[in-house]
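Tutorial sheet, problem 5. The two components below are modelled jointly, 559 residues in total.
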Amino acid sequence: MTLHPNGPAARTPSGGARRLAAAAATALAAVLALSAAHPPLAPPAAARVDPPLRVAAAISVRDALTDIARDFERSTGSGVTLSFGSTGQLLAQIREGAPLDLFISAAHEQVDALEREGLVAPDTRRVVARNQLVLITPRDRDDRRDPAREQHELDAGAAFPSDAASPSDAHPGRPAHVRGFAELARPIVQRVAIGDPRTVPAGAYAQQVFECLHLKQPLVRRVVYGANVRQVLDYVARGEVSAGVVYATDARAALGRVRVVAIADDAWHAPIEYPAVTLAASRRKEIAARFTAFLTGPRGAAGFMRHGFATPGASTTQPGELRSAAPRGSNDHRTASPHEPRP
Amino acid sequence: MSPIALSLVVASAATVAAAMVAIPLAHGLARAEFRGKSAIETLLTLPLVLPPTVVGYTIVVLLGARGVAGRWLHAAFDYSILFRIEGAVLAAAVVSFPLLYLPAKAAFRAVDRELLETAALRGAARWQARGPVSLPIARHGIASGAALCFARALGEFGATVMVFGWQPGRVTMPIAVYSAYEQGRLMEAFPIVATLTVLCFGLLVVINRTAFERRA
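Model answer (C-alpha coordinates):
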Protein backbone atom coordinates (compact mmCIF):
# COMPACT_ATOMS: atom_id res chain seq x y z
CA MET A 1 0.00 0.00 0.00
CA THR A 2 1.28 3.46 -0.86
CA LEU A 3 0.83 6.39 1.46
CA HIS A 4 -0.71 9.62 0.25
CA PRO A 5 0.30 12.19 2.80
CA ASN A 6 -1.91 14.84 1.20
CA GLY A 7 -4.87 12.63 0.46
CA PRO A 8 -8.10 13.20 2.30
CA ALA A 9 -7.81 9.87 4.06
CA ALA A 10 -4.47 10.86 5.55
CA ARG A 11 -5.41 14.37 6.54
CA THR A 12 -8.09 13.62 9.05
CA PRO A 13 -6.06 11.33 11.32
CA SER A 14 -2.96 13.52 11.11
CA GLY A 15 -4.55 16.24 13.25
CA GLY A 16 -5.32 13.61 15.85
CA ALA A 17 -1.89 12.11 15.43
CA ARG A 18 -0.27 15.49 15.98
CA ARG A 19 -2.30 16.05 19.12
CA LEU A 20 -1.37 12.57 20.29
CA ALA A 21 2.29 13.26 19.59
CA ALA A 22 2.08 16.50 21.55
CA ALA A 23 0.45 14.70 24.46
CA ALA A 24 3.10 11.99 24.34
CA ALA A 25 5.86 14.59 24.31
CA THR A 26 4.35 16.31 27.33
CA ALA A 27 4.07 13.02 29.16
CA LEU A 28 7.64 12.17 28.27
CA ALA A 29 8.87 15.53 29.49
CA ALA A 30 7.01 15.03 32.74
CA VAL A 31 8.52 11.60 33.21
CA LEU A 32 11.99 12.90 32.45
CA ALA A 33 11.55 15.75 34.90
CA LEU A 34 10.44 13.33 37.60
CA SER A 35 13.21 10.86 37.02
CA ALA A 36 15.96 13.45 36.81
CA ALA A 37 18.98 12.99 39.03
CA HIS A 38 18.47 13.26 42.74
CA PRO A 39 18.38 17.01 43.35
CA PRO A 40 20.81 18.61 45.78
CA LEU A 41 19.43 18.14 49.25
CA ALA A 42 20.01 21.60 50.65
CA PRO A 43 18.01 24.58 49.53
CA PRO A 44 20.06 26.68 47.13
CA ALA A 45 21.43 28.77 49.97
CA ALA A 46 23.02 32.16 49.40
CA ALA A 47 24.36 31.92 45.86
CA ARG A 48 26.56 28.87 46.20
CA VAL A 49 29.12 29.02 43.43
CA ASP A 50 30.65 25.57 43.93
CA PRO A 51 28.95 22.70 42.18
CA PRO A 52 27.71 20.09 44.66
CA LEU A 53 29.79 17.09 45.63
CA ARG A 54 28.61 14.13 43.59
CA VAL A 55 28.30 10.95 45.61
CA ALA A 56 27.29 7.54 44.28
CA ALA A 57 26.38 4.97 46.90
CA ALA A 58 25.13 1.43 47.28
CA ILE A 59 21.36 1.46 47.55
CA SER A 60 21.42 -0.17 50.98
CA VAL A 61 22.78 3.00 52.62
CA ARG A 62 20.22 5.22 50.92
CA ASP A 63 18.15 6.37 53.91
CA ALA A 64 21.09 6.78 56.24
CA LEU A 65 23.22 8.62 53.70
CA THR A 66 20.36 10.93 52.75
CA ASP A 67 20.03 11.95 56.41
CA ILE A 68 23.75 12.41 56.91
CA ALA A 69 24.23 14.37 53.68
CA ARG A 70 21.45 16.73 54.71
CA ASP A 71 23.18 17.19 58.04
CA PHE A 72 26.49 17.83 56.27
CA GLU A 73 24.93 20.44 54.01
CA ARG A 74 23.35 22.21 56.95
CA SER A 75 26.57 22.37 58.89
CA THR A 76 29.03 23.16 56.08
CA GLY A 77 26.98 24.90 53.42
CA SER A 78 28.42 22.76 50.64
CA GLY A 79 25.95 20.87 48.52
CA VAL A 80 25.88 17.11 48.04
CA THR A 81 24.21 15.28 45.17
CA LEU A 82 23.41 11.63 45.83
CA SER A 83 22.75 8.84 43.41
CA PHE A 84 22.10 5.25 44.31
CA GLY A 85 22.30 1.93 42.57
CA SER A 86 23.51 -1.59 43.03
CA THR A 87 27.23 -1.69 43.64
CA GLY A 88 27.72 -3.50 40.34
CA GLN A 89 25.81 -0.84 38.40
CA LEU A 90 27.77 1.97 40.03
CA LEU A 91 31.03 0.20 39.27
CA ALA A 92 30.10 0.08 35.58
CA GLN A 93 29.14 3.78 35.63
CA ILE A 94 32.45 4.77 37.20
CA ARG A 95 34.38 2.78 34.61
CA GLU A 96 32.45 4.55 31.87
CA GLY A 97 33.56 7.89 33.29
CA ALA A 98 30.41 9.06 35.07
CA PRO A 99 31.06 12.47 36.67
CA LEU A 100 31.39 11.44 40.31
CA ASP A 101 33.54 12.49 43.25
CA LEU A 102 32.89 9.89 45.93
CA PHE A 103 31.86 6.26 45.80
CA ILE A 104 30.38 4.35 48.72
CA SER A 105 30.46 0.64 47.97
CA ALA A 106 28.69 -2.23 49.69
CA ALA A 107 31.88 -4.28 49.61
CA HIS A 108 35.65 -3.86 49.33
CA GLU A 109 35.89 -6.08 46.29
CA GLN A 110 34.55 -3.44 43.90
CA VAL A 111 36.83 -0.77 45.34
CA ASP A 112 39.77 -3.16 44.94
CA ALA A 113 38.89 -3.52 41.28
CA LEU A 114 38.71 0.25 40.79
CA GLU A 115 42.00 0.63 42.60
CA ARG A 116 43.70 -1.83 40.27
CA GLU A 117 42.38 0.15 37.33
CA GLY A 118 43.78 3.38 38.73
CA LEU A 119 40.39 5.01 39.10
CA VAL A 120 40.71 5.71 42.81
CA ALA A 121 42.55 8.55 44.54
CA PRO A 122 45.27 6.90 46.66
CA ASP A 123 44.80 6.53 50.41
CA THR A 124 41.22 7.74 50.47
CA ARG A 125 39.45 4.50 51.36
CA ARG A 126 37.63 4.68 54.69
CA VAL A 127 35.12 2.25 56.13
CA VAL A 128 32.09 4.37 56.96
CA ALA A 129 29.63 1.73 58.20
CA ARG A 130 29.21 -1.93 58.96
CA ASN A 131 26.25 -4.19 58.63
CA GLN A 132 25.11 -7.59 59.85
CA LEU A 133 23.29 -10.52 58.40
CA VAL A 134 20.00 -11.63 59.90
CA LEU A 135 17.71 -14.58 59.41
CA ILE A 136 14.13 -13.55 58.70
CA THR A 137 10.88 -15.51 58.57
CA PRO A 138 7.39 -14.59 57.38
CA ARG A 139 5.26 -12.65 59.79
CA ASP A 140 2.06 -14.58 60.40
CA ARG A 141 -1.25 -12.93 59.82
CA ASP A 142 -2.26 -13.90 63.33
CA ASP A 143 0.97 -12.57 64.74
CA ARG A 144 0.07 -11.05 68.06
CA ARG A 145 3.05 -8.76 68.23
CA ASP A 146 2.44 -5.26 67.14
CA PRO A 147 4.83 -4.02 64.43
CA ALA A 148 4.23 -0.44 65.57
CA ARG A 149 5.37 -1.32 69.07
CA GLU A 150 8.40 -3.12 67.72
CA GLN A 151 9.21 -0.08 65.64
CA HIS A 152 8.92 2.02 68.76
CA GLU A 153 11.37 -0.25 70.56
CA LEU A 154 13.74 0.11 67.66
CA ASP A 155 13.45 3.85 67.69
CA ALA A 156 14.19 3.75 71.39
CA GLY A 157 17.53 2.19 70.57
CA ALA A 158 17.04 -1.58 70.70
CA ALA A 159 18.65 -3.44 67.85
CA PHE A 160 15.71 -5.78 67.54
CA PRO A 161 12.34 -6.13 69.24
CA SER A 162 12.66 -7.61 72.69
CA ASP A 163 10.76 -10.75 71.79
CA ALA A 164 12.62 -11.46 68.59
CA ALA A 165 13.77 -15.07 68.64
CA SER A 166 11.86 -15.80 71.83
CA PRO A 167 10.67 -19.39 71.76
CA SER A 168 7.50 -18.75 73.76
CA ASP A 169 5.16 -18.04 70.91
CA ALA A 170 5.10 -21.23 68.89
CA HIS A 171 1.85 -21.77 67.08
CA PRO A 172 0.43 -25.11 68.07
CA GLY A 173 -0.69 -27.19 65.13
CA ARG A 174 1.52 -25.38 62.69
CA PRO A 175 5.04 -26.35 61.86
CA ALA A 176 7.36 -24.55 64.21
CA HIS A 177 9.14 -21.55 62.85
CA VAL A 178 12.79 -21.48 62.13
CA ARG A 179 14.56 -19.83 65.03
CA GLY A 180 18.18 -19.96 64.11
CA PHE A 181 20.58 -20.57 61.30
CA ALA A 182 21.35 -24.14 62.35
CA GLU A 183 17.67 -25.02 62.16
CA LEU A 184 17.70 -24.36 58.44
CA ALA A 185 18.88 -27.94 58.01
CA ARG A 186 15.58 -29.23 59.39
CA PRO A 187 13.24 -30.84 56.89
CA ILE A 188 10.35 -28.47 57.70
CA VAL A 189 12.34 -25.78 55.96
CA GLN A 190 11.11 -25.95 52.40
CA ARG A 191 13.04 -23.12 50.89
CA VAL A 192 15.49 -20.44 51.92
CA ALA A 193 15.95 -17.25 49.91
CA ILE A 194 19.26 -15.40 49.61
CA GLY A 195 20.55 -12.88 47.10
CA ASP A 196 22.33 -14.35 44.09
CA PRO A 197 25.86 -14.67 45.51
CA ARG A 198 27.43 -13.78 42.18
CA THR A 199 25.74 -10.41 41.89
CA VAL A 200 24.36 -9.54 45.34
CA PRO A 201 26.94 -9.01 48.11
CA ALA A 202 24.39 -9.92 50.81
CA GLY A 203 23.92 -13.26 49.07
CA ALA A 204 27.66 -13.87 48.95
CA TYR A 205 27.88 -13.24 52.71
CA ALA A 206 24.89 -15.53 53.29
CA GLN A 207 26.63 -18.26 51.39
CA GLN A 208 29.71 -17.82 53.56
CA VAL A 209 27.48 -18.34 56.59
CA PHE A 210 26.02 -21.51 55.09
CA GLU A 211 29.50 -22.82 54.34
CA CYS A 212 30.76 -21.99 57.79
CA LEU A 213 27.81 -23.72 59.49
CA HIS A 214 27.99 -26.70 57.12
CA LEU A 215 24.53 -25.88 55.84
CA LYS A 216 25.45 -25.84 52.20
CA GLN A 217 24.91 -29.54 51.67
CA PRO A 218 21.63 -29.81 53.62
CA LEU A 219 20.31 -26.76 51.80
CA VAL A 220 21.21 -27.86 48.31
CA ARG A 221 18.08 -27.72 46.12
CA ARG A 222 16.31 -25.66 48.77
CA VAL A 223 18.01 -22.35 48.18
CA VAL A 224 16.30 -19.77 45.99
CA TYR A 225 18.13 -16.73 44.67
CA GLY A 226 16.71 -13.24 44.67
CA ALA A 227 17.95 -10.76 42.08
CA ASN A 228 18.43 -8.29 44.95
CA VAL A 229 17.84 -8.01 48.67
CA ARG A 230 14.41 -6.52 48.19
CA GLN A 231 13.24 -9.58 46.31
CA VAL A 232 14.52 -11.82 49.09
CA LEU A 233 12.53 -9.74 51.58
CA ASP A 234 9.47 -10.01 49.37
CA TYR A 235 9.70 -13.79 49.02
CA VAL A 236 9.82 -14.06 52.81
CA ALA A 237 7.09 -11.49 53.40
CA ARG A 238 4.77 -13.35 51.03
CA GLY A 239 5.47 -16.63 52.77
CA GLU A 240 6.83 -18.23 49.63
CA VAL A 241 9.96 -19.33 51.44
CA SER A 242 10.44 -20.51 55.01
CA ALA A 243 13.24 -18.08 55.70
CA GLY A 244 15.63 -15.63 54.11
CA VAL A 245 18.97 -14.02 54.84
CA VAL A 246 19.30 -10.25 54.43
CA TYR A 247 21.15 -7.32 55.95
CA ALA A 248 20.00 -6.24 59.38
CA THR A 249 19.22 -2.79 58.00
CA ASP A 250 16.97 -4.12 55.26
CA ALA A 251 15.10 -6.37 57.67
CA ARG A 252 14.63 -3.46 60.01
CA ALA A 253 13.08 -1.38 57.27
CA ALA A 254 10.60 -4.18 56.52
CA LEU A 255 9.73 -5.12 60.08
CA GLY A 256 5.99 -4.93 59.48
CA ARG A 257 6.25 -7.77 57.01
CA VAL A 258 9.00 -10.05 58.30
CA ARG A 259 10.36 -11.22 61.63
CA VAL A 260 14.02 -11.19 62.55
CA VAL A 261 14.75 -14.48 64.30
CA ALA A 262 18.54 -14.59 64.50
CA ILE A 263 21.63 -12.55 63.83
CA ALA A 264 24.60 -14.17 62.14
CA ASP A 265 27.76 -14.10 64.19
CA ASP A 266 30.35 -11.83 62.62
CA ALA A 267 32.80 -14.73 62.67
CA TRP A 268 30.66 -16.71 60.22
CA HIS A 269 31.32 -14.38 57.31
CA ALA A 270 33.78 -11.77 56.09
CA PRO A 271 33.18 -8.36 57.64
CA ILE A 272 30.37 -6.48 55.95
CA GLU A 273 31.89 -3.09 55.48
CA TYR A 274 30.94 -0.07 53.42
CA PRO A 275 34.07 1.68 52.19
CA ALA A 276 33.95 5.23 50.86
CA VAL A 277 36.57 6.21 48.33
CA THR A 278 37.40 9.39 46.42
CA LEU A 279 37.64 8.87 42.71
CA ALA A 280 40.80 9.77 40.84
CA ALA A 281 38.85 11.82 38.30
CA SER A 282 37.33 14.06 40.97
CA ARG A 283 38.29 17.72 40.92
CA ARG A 284 36.85 18.26 44.37
CA LYS A 285 38.99 15.89 46.39
CA GLU A 286 39.20 18.25 49.35
CA ILE A 287 35.45 18.43 49.87
CA ALA A 288 35.23 14.71 49.22
CA ALA A 289 37.75 14.16 52.02
CA ARG A 290 35.76 16.46 54.29
CA PHE A 291 32.55 14.58 53.58
CA THR A 292 34.31 11.26 54.21
CA ALA A 293 35.57 12.60 57.54
CA PHE A 294 32.03 13.71 58.37
CA LEU A 295 30.73 10.22 57.57
CA THR A 296 33.23 8.56 59.91
CA GLY A 297 32.84 11.29 62.53
CA PRO A 298 30.33 11.31 65.37
CA ARG A 299 27.47 12.81 63.35
CA GLY A 300 27.92 10.40 60.48
CA ALA A 301 28.11 7.50 62.90
CA ALA A 302 24.94 8.66 64.62
CA GLY A 303 23.17 8.85 61.28
CA PHE A 304 24.23 5.34 60.31
CA MET A 305 23.29 3.95 63.72
CA ARG A 306 19.85 5.53 63.52
CA HIS A 307 19.25 3.35 60.49
CA GLY A 308 20.53 0.14 62.05
CA PHE A 309 24.12 0.14 60.83
CA ALA A 310 27.04 -0.56 63.09
CA THR A 311 29.80 1.99 63.03
CA PRO A 312 33.30 1.12 61.87
CA GLY A 313 34.54 1.18 65.45
CA ALA A 314 32.19 -1.56 66.64
CA SER A 315 34.21 -4.74 66.52
CA THR A 316 33.16 -8.34 66.81
CA THR A 317 34.37 -8.77 70.34
CA GLN A 318 32.80 -5.56 71.52
CA PRO A 319 29.18 -5.78 70.54
CA GLY A 320 27.90 -2.47 69.31
CA GLU A 321 24.42 -1.17 69.70
CA LEU A 322 23.16 -3.43 66.93
CA ARG A 323 23.95 -6.50 68.94
CA SER A 324 22.39 -5.45 72.21
CA ALA A 325 19.38 -7.73 71.78
CA ALA A 326 21.12 -10.35 69.71
CA PRO A 327 20.55 -13.93 70.83
CA ARG A 328 24.22 -14.32 71.57
CA GLY A 329 25.00 -17.71 72.98
CA SER A 330 21.34 -18.62 72.71
CA ASN A 331 19.92 -21.63 70.96
CA ASP A 332 21.39 -20.58 67.65
CA HIS A 333 24.86 -20.93 68.99
CA ARG A 334 24.12 -24.09 70.89
CA THR A 335 22.58 -25.90 67.96
CA ALA A 336 25.43 -24.79 65.78
CA SER A 337 28.10 -25.89 68.21
CA PRO A 338 29.15 -29.11 66.46
CA HIS A 339 30.36 -26.90 63.66
CA GLU A 340 32.76 -24.46 65.08
CA PRO A 341 32.69 -21.06 63.44
CA ARG A 342 35.58 -20.29 61.21
CA PRO A 343 38.54 -18.92 63.17
CA MET B 1 19.29 -31.23 35.88
CA SER B 2 21.01 -29.25 33.15
CA PRO B 3 19.24 -26.19 31.75
CA ILE B 4 18.68 -28.05 28.49
CA ALA B 5 17.08 -31.07 30.14
CA LEU B 6 14.98 -28.92 32.46
CA SER B 7 13.77 -26.76 29.58
CA LEU B 8 12.87 -29.79 27.47
CA VAL B 9 10.93 -31.35 30.37
CA VAL B 10 9.09 -28.11 31.16
CA ALA B 11 8.29 -27.35 27.52
CA SER B 12 7.07 -30.91 26.84
CA ALA B 13 4.86 -30.92 29.91
CA ALA B 14 3.55 -27.45 29.06
CA THR B 15 2.70 -28.55 25.50
CA VAL B 16 0.83 -31.62 26.78
CA ALA B 17 -1.02 -29.52 29.34
CA ALA B 18 -1.91 -26.87 26.77
CA ALA B 19 -3.02 -29.54 24.29
CA MET B 20 -5.34 -31.18 26.81
CA VAL B 21 -7.20 -27.91 27.18
CA ALA B 22 -6.72 -26.37 23.74
CA ILE B 23 -7.78 -29.26 21.51
CA PRO B 24 -11.21 -29.91 23.08
CA LEU B 25 -11.85 -26.18 23.34
CA ALA B 26 -10.76 -25.56 19.74
CA HIS B 27 -13.03 -28.34 18.55
CA GLY B 28 -15.96 -27.15 20.59
CA LEU B 29 -15.59 -23.51 19.64
CA ALA B 30 -14.75 -24.09 15.96
CA ARG B 31 -18.40 -24.41 15.01
CA ALA B 32 -20.35 -23.39 18.08
CA GLU B 33 -22.31 -20.16 18.14
CA PHE B 34 -23.47 -18.68 21.41
CA ARG B 35 -23.58 -15.45 23.30
CA GLY B 36 -20.27 -14.47 24.78
CA LYS B 37 -18.30 -16.71 22.46
CA SER B 38 -16.12 -13.88 21.21
CA ALA B 39 -15.36 -12.84 24.77
CA ILE B 40 -14.20 -16.36 25.60
CA GLU B 41 -12.13 -16.59 22.43
CA THR B 42 -10.51 -13.26 23.17
CA LEU B 43 -9.67 -14.40 26.66
CA LEU B 44 -8.12 -17.61 25.31
CA THR B 45 -5.90 -15.71 22.87
CA LEU B 46 -5.01 -12.95 25.32
CA PRO B 47 -1.68 -14.52 26.45
CA LEU B 48 -0.48 -14.11 22.86
CA VAL B 49 -0.28 -10.34 23.22
CA LEU B 50 -0.11 -9.90 26.98
CA PRO B 51 3.41 -9.43 28.39
CA PRO B 52 4.49 -12.70 30.03
CA THR B 53 5.17 -10.73 33.21
CA VAL B 54 1.43 -10.08 33.46
CA VAL B 55 0.83 -13.82 33.23
CA GLY B 56 3.48 -14.40 35.91
CA TYR B 57 1.96 -11.72 38.10
CA THR B 58 -1.50 -13.26 37.77
CA ILE B 59 -0.22 -16.71 38.72
CA VAL B 60 1.61 -15.33 41.77
CA VAL B 61 -1.40 -13.29 42.88
CA LEU B 62 -3.79 -16.20 42.44
CA LEU B 63 -1.72 -19.20 43.47
CA GLY B 64 1.12 -17.82 45.60
CA ALA B 65 1.33 -18.72 49.28
CA ARG B 66 -0.61 -15.55 50.15
CA GLY B 67 -2.55 -15.55 46.88
CA VAL B 68 -6.30 -15.41 46.44
CA ALA B 69 -6.63 -19.18 46.00
CA GLY B 70 -3.09 -20.16 46.95
CA ARG B 71 -3.54 -19.26 50.60
CA TRP B 72 -5.99 -22.14 51.06
CA LEU B 73 -3.57 -24.55 49.43
CA HIS B 74 -0.83 -23.18 51.61
CA ALA B 75 -2.86 -23.42 54.79
CA ALA B 76 -4.10 -26.94 54.06
CA PHE B 77 -1.09 -28.58 52.46
CA ASP B 78 1.74 -26.14 53.07
CA TYR B 79 1.89 -25.94 49.29
CA SER B 80 2.77 -23.07 47.05
CA ILE B 81 3.21 -23.30 43.31
CA LEU B 82 6.17 -20.95 43.37
CA PHE B 83 9.63 -22.41 42.78
CA ARG B 84 8.08 -25.74 41.79
CA ILE B 85 8.42 -27.38 38.43
CA GLU B 86 4.65 -27.43 37.98
CA GLY B 87 4.75 -23.66 38.37
CA ALA B 88 7.19 -23.39 35.48
CA VAL B 89 4.99 -25.73 33.45
CA LEU B 90 1.87 -23.69 34.21
CA ALA B 91 3.56 -20.42 33.28
CA ALA B 92 4.90 -21.81 30.00
CA ALA B 93 1.58 -23.51 29.19
CA VAL B 94 -0.49 -20.36 29.71
CA VAL B 95 1.84 -18.19 27.65
CA SER B 96 2.10 -20.65 24.75
CA PHE B 97 -1.53 -21.81 24.85
CA PRO B 98 -2.85 -19.57 22.02
CA LEU B 99 -0.20 -20.86 19.64
CA LEU B 100 -1.74 -24.30 19.89
CA TYR B 101 -5.33 -23.20 20.25
CA LEU B 102 -5.49 -20.94 17.17
CA PRO B 103 -4.08 -23.37 14.57
CA ALA B 104 -6.12 -26.21 16.07
CA LYS B 105 -9.31 -24.18 15.79
CA ALA B 106 -8.51 -23.20 12.22
CA ALA B 107 -7.86 -26.84 11.38
CA PHE B 108 -11.12 -28.00 12.92
CA ARG B 109 -12.96 -25.26 11.10
CA ALA B 110 -11.41 -26.38 7.83
CA VAL B 111 -12.76 -29.90 8.23
CA ASP B 112 -15.40 -30.24 5.53
CA ARG B 113 -18.86 -29.94 7.01
CA GLU B 114 -20.20 -32.30 4.33
CA LEU B 115 -17.72 -34.90 5.43
CA LEU B 116 -19.03 -34.71 8.97
CA GLU B 117 -22.63 -34.88 7.74
CA THR B 118 -21.78 -37.90 5.62
CA ALA B 119 -20.24 -39.54 8.66
CA ALA B 120 -23.43 -38.80 10.58
CA LEU B 121 -25.57 -40.16 7.77
CA ARG B 122 -23.54 -43.32 7.76
CA GLY B 123 -24.37 -43.77 11.38
CA ALA B 124 -21.50 -42.14 13.19
CA ALA B 125 -22.51 -40.85 16.58
CA ARG B 126 -21.72 -37.26 17.48
CA TRP B 127 -18.69 -38.26 19.49
CA GLN B 128 -17.41 -40.32 16.59
CA ALA B 129 -17.67 -37.42 14.19
CA ARG B 130 -15.81 -35.41 16.76
CA GLY B 131 -12.85 -37.68 17.43
CA PRO B 132 -12.29 -40.41 14.87
CA VAL B 133 -13.37 -38.28 11.91
CA SER B 134 -12.24 -34.71 12.71
CA LEU B 135 -9.00 -35.37 14.51
CA PRO B 136 -7.10 -37.12 11.71
CA ILE B 137 -8.16 -34.47 9.22
CA ALA B 138 -7.11 -31.66 11.56
CA ARG B 139 -3.90 -33.38 12.58
CA HIS B 140 -1.56 -31.19 10.54
CA GLY B 141 -2.95 -28.04 12.01
CA ILE B 142 -2.80 -29.47 15.50
CA ALA B 143 0.74 -30.77 15.00
CA SER B 144 2.11 -27.48 13.75
CA GLY B 145 0.29 -25.74 16.58
CA ALA B 146 1.84 -28.13 19.08
CA ALA B 147 5.30 -27.54 17.61
CA LEU B 148 4.84 -23.77 17.83
CA CYS B 149 3.54 -24.12 21.37
CA PHE B 150 6.55 -26.24 22.32
CA ALA B 151 8.99 -23.76 20.79
CA ARG B 152 7.35 -20.87 22.62
CA ALA B 153 7.30 -22.81 25.90
CA LEU B 154 10.98 -23.61 25.44
CA GLY B 155 11.78 -19.91 25.19
CA GLU B 156 9.44 -18.71 27.95
CA PHE B 157 11.26 -16.36 30.29
CA GLY B 158 9.15 -13.57 31.80
CA ALA B 159 6.38 -15.54 33.46
CA THR B 160 8.67 -18.46 34.28
CA VAL B 161 11.22 -16.38 36.14
CA MET B 162 8.46 -14.84 38.24
CA VAL B 163 6.88 -18.16 39.16
CA PHE B 164 9.85 -20.55 39.14
CA GLY B 165 12.29 -17.98 40.42
CA TRP B 166 15.96 -18.52 40.23
CA GLN B 167 17.31 -21.60 41.90
CA PRO B 168 20.95 -22.62 41.79
CA GLY B 169 21.34 -25.73 39.65
CA ARG B 170 17.74 -25.48 38.50
CA VAL B 171 17.47 -22.94 35.71
CA THR B 172 15.78 -23.16 32.35
CA MET B 173 17.72 -22.25 29.23
CA PRO B 174 16.35 -18.70 28.88
CA ILE B 175 17.00 -18.01 32.56
CA ALA B 176 20.54 -19.34 32.21
CA VAL B 177 21.14 -16.97 29.30
CA TYR B 178 19.87 -13.98 31.25
CA SER B 179 21.82 -14.94 34.35
CA ALA B 180 25.06 -15.20 32.38
CA TYR B 181 24.31 -11.84 30.78
CA GLU B 182 23.68 -10.22 34.13
CA GLN B 183 27.02 -11.40 35.42
CA GLY B 184 28.80 -10.16 32.34
CA ARG B 185 29.76 -13.69 31.32
CA LEU B 186 28.36 -13.63 27.84
CA MET B 187 30.53 -16.46 26.56
CA GLU B 188 29.12 -18.84 29.16
CA ALA B 189 25.70 -18.43 27.62
CA PHE B 190 26.89 -19.19 24.11
CA PRO B 191 26.32 -23.00 24.11
CA ILE B 192 22.78 -22.49 25.37
CA VAL B 193 22.07 -19.72 22.88
CA ALA B 194 23.35 -21.94 20.08
CA THR B 195 21.31 -24.93 21.27
CA LEU B 196 18.11 -22.87 21.53
CA THR B 197 18.64 -21.32 18.12
CA VAL B 198 19.28 -24.65 16.41
CA LEU B 199 16.38 -26.32 18.22
CA CYS B 200 13.91 -23.58 17.31
CA PHE B 201 15.20 -23.45 13.75
CA GLY B 202 14.55 -27.17 13.42
CA LEU B 203 11.08 -26.83 14.90
CA LEU B 204 10.18 -24.06 12.47
CA VAL B 205 11.40 -26.18 9.56
CA VAL B 206 9.08 -28.97 10.70
CA ILE B 207 6.20 -26.53 11.11
CA ASN B 208 6.72 -25.06 7.65
CA ARG B 209 6.85 -28.52 6.14
CA THR B 210 3.57 -29.63 7.73
CA ALA B 211 1.90 -26.38 6.75
CA PHE B 212 3.10 -26.86 3.19
CA GLU B 213 1.95 -30.47 3.08
CA ARG B 214 -1.48 -29.41 4.21
CA ARG B 215 -1.77 -26.93 1.39
CA ALA B 216 -0.58 -29.39 -1.21
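Marking note: The longest strand of chain A covers residues 53-58. Full credit if you identified this.
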